[in-house]
Design a protein that fits this description.
This protein has helices at 3-9, 24-35, 54-61, 96-113, 126-133, 165-168, and strands spanning 46-51, 74-81, 117-118, 139-148. With 172 residues, the protein is of the alpha+beta class. The chain has a single domain (3-168), classed as NADH Oxidase (3-Layer(aba) Sandwich), CATH 3.40.109.10.
Length: 172
Amino acid sequence: MEYRELLVKRESVRSYDPTKPVHREVIERILEAGRLAPSAANRQPWKFIVVTSKELLEKIYRAYERPWFHDAPVVLVVVGKKNEAWVRSYDGYCSVETDAAIAMTAMLYAAANEGVGSCWISNFNPSILREVLHLSDSEEVYAITPLGYPKADYTPKGMKERKPLNDVVQWM
């Protein structure tokens, strides 16, 4: 897909076909986009957890209790490793959240390019995910997304409503 078309077509999907699996090679291409994402000082302070087992999915679903989320056959969890992230010496700013967000964005666009639906979720219960995924103290979940093919009756929303360029750009 041409890049501009991909930017326009990617959307948050909230309708998944639980009977249609996402094959491993497709997931790996999506993960590769995250692996190749830029990060501060090239530290790559992330871990991508791919949850596909029914047993673990049931536990993950408890962290975000929306019916449409429970239909997703795959959940991708983006974990930041705080102790591996670059820290700015001037003020102590830690890049881990930014780096994780860049990787997540790359994977969402890669998913759209594969025809796989996704939806960036931040409104999850971090305590449940921390316990279920056995995360260390230096690891933090920054985002999750379901991955799956939309149901047959899903209708794409079309062009996203965005602020005009003049409202978000300042030329100096």
